[in-house]
Amino acid sequence: MRNKIVAGNWKMNKDLTGTEALLEELSAKLPDTNAKVMVSPTFVNLANAVQKLKDSKIEVIAQNMHFAENGAYTGEISANMLLNIGINTVIIGHSERRAYFGETDEILSKKVKAALANNMQVMFCFGEELEDRKSGNHFNLVESQLKNALFDLDLAAWPNIILAYEPVWAIGTGETASPEQAQEMHAFIRKTIAEAFDTDIAENVSILYGGSVKPGNAEEIFSKPDVDGGLIGGASLVADDFIAIVKAI
Length: 249
Ligand code: 13P
Known about the structure:
The chain is α/β, with parallel strands linked by helices. It has helices spanning about 15-30, 45-50, 80-85, 95-100, 105-115, 130-135, 140-150, 180-195, 200-205, 215-220, 240-249; strands at about 5-10, 35-40, 60, 90, 120-125, 160-165, 205-210, 230. The protein starts with a strand and ends with a helix.
């Protein structure tokens, strides 16, 4: 059974005071929902966020991690460090990590494996650039991103994978993929996974859409059969907007 999920990627926003204030407001306003609701504050505020949400249904997740268990990797964070403070889910492969921090498919494959080896759940992000879509290469590109990072996993790994399709041209631009474009790509992703693994895996994996999801467009995007929720950037920083998006699912 795939889950409905609404996750907020706070990126490099909100200091400790801002994090606490937003978490308090979100907890107070969270509606009764069957969907999983997740937030990912920045690393330095994760432990605090876990404490703050210990009686809440909102899960705290991390934005990134390193693939090594420990060692001389200045500035990096390991899976065990996350687990140790109560974080069980990590976002891997965000386009900003790929674009600004040189994360290649090869690095991402290692990160995915390291997270899974530590029994963590992975929210794997991928998506095409505008040029890929304009040239009609978007399906090939997405297929290769999935293949390079995920297709050598065991079947048993898949219950711990969440996919987040985030077309780069729709991130932070206010321009969202149309519900039809999102559905078309999500159906393609499911078909690609069915071919590489099996139909059960493909039917059971949650596929989120990310890229300028707002209260005004969430319901229509979420109504598509292969869209299981959203990974929300800007709108996740405003409690009322994020809550409205949770209600939309
Ligand atoms: P926006 O919702 O701000 O477009 O960001 C999407 C995103 O990158 C979530 O990871």
